[in-house]
Amino acid sequence: MLNRHARGFFTSIFTPLARWLLKIGVSPDAVTVAGTAGVILGGLVLYPLGYLWWGSVVVAFFAFSDVVDGIMARLQGRSGGWGNFLDSTLDRLADGAIFAGLTIWFFTKGGDPAIGTAAVVCLVLGMVVSYARAKAESLGYQASVGIAERAERLASVLLITGLTGLGLPAVVLFATLILLALASVVTIVQRMATVRKQAMAEA
Question: Looking at 21, 28, 56, 91, which residue is catalytic?
Answer without folding.
Answer: 91
